Amino acid sequence: MEKVAFIINPFSAKKNYQPFLASLKKKVQNPYYIISESIEDTQQYILNHFDEFDIFVAIGGDGTISTVAKHLINTEKILAIFPAGSGNGFSNETNFHKNLDELLEKIKGKKSRKIDTFTVNDKLSINVSGTGFDGKVVKEFEKTERGFKNYIKVSIQTFFNYKPIKVKFLDENYRQYNGKYLMLNIANTRQFGNNAYIAPKASKSDGLVDLVLVKKFPITYSPFFAFRMFTKRLKDDDYVTYLPVSEIEFKVSTKNWHLDGEFNKIKSPVHVKVLPKSLKILI
Q1: In 3D, which of 33, 69, 17, 75 has the Cα closest to residue 51?
Q2: What is the per-residue pLDDT for 226?
Q3: DSSP letter string over 123-155?
C-alpha cells in the first residue's frame, strides 16, 4: 500500500468516517491518508503528493470523488472509491461498495480501465449534472442534514412551486428541442444515486453523454415517472427526451446547477463537452 493515498471527506455520510479509518488502520500498516476539511485541502494534498502515489482513493460521495478525479484527468494515476455519500451514484455505477476488504483486494490487483468524463463550461463532471428542478432541489437539499428521506421531502416541496426553465440550443440541429422544461440533465452514467436511473441507456465509455430533457408533467404522471426511474424503464415519451451528444451548447434561463450533486452557479451560454477515456479507474 506504499503507492496508495486515502482522501477522506469527514463531512460525508453524516460525518461518520471514524469506523472506516479505524478499520483501515487495522488492515493496512501506516496507511497514507488525509482527513480533508475542504476542497482546497484535497487539491493541495494531491498536488503536493502527486508523484508519490499511483492510486488515490476518494472516501465520500460523488462531489468528493469528482474533486479528486479532476486532478487525475488524462494522467496514469488511478482513481478508487470507498462510497460514503448520501446517494453514491458514481460508485454504484463503477462497482465500488462499502466493503473495505473488497477494496483492498482491488488495490492489490491494481487493474484499471479508462472511462469518459465531461465538462460543463470547463467544470468537470463524472456522473450526472443538471439544471432546473434538480438544480433547485440540490440547492435546498444542502440546507438539510441530507439523507434519502430529506431528498424526497425537498423534491416534493419544490415540485409544486417550481416554474419550468427555458432552454435554447445554439446548434440548428437541435433547435426543434427549444422550449420549457422541468429539468435538463447531462448523464455520463445511468443514475443520480440511490438507484434512481435518469438515463438507463447511458454509458461511461462510449464517448457520449445523454442529454435528458424532462417537461413538467401533471401530478398524475408522477407515480409513473418515479416507477420507471427506479426500475430502469425511463424512455422517450411525451415528457422525456434523450439526446446522445459528444458536445453541445445552449442557453438556459437559470444559473442554478448541480455538478455530481454539488450546487454550482453556471452562466449561459453553457458548453458541454465529453472527454473520452480521460479517467483511469480501479476495477
Answers
A1: 75
A2: 85
A3: EEESSEEEEEHHHHHHHHHTTTT-SHHHHHHHH
pLDDT at 15: 64
The whole-number pLDDT of residue 193 equals 85
User: Grid coordinates in use for 241?
Assistant: 427526451
Alpha helices in the chain (DSSP H): 18-27, 39-49, 62-69, 89-93, 100-109, 133-141, 148-161, 222-230
C-alpha cell belonging to residue 100: 473495505
CA distance 274 to 261: 18
**Residue 13 has what pLDDT?**
59
What's this model's pTM, rounded to 2 decimal places? Answer: 0.90
Q: What is the average pLDDT across 247-255? A: 97
Are the C-beta atoms of residues 66 and 124 closer than 8 Å to each other?
yes
C-alpha dihedral sign at 199, 127, 227, 180? negative
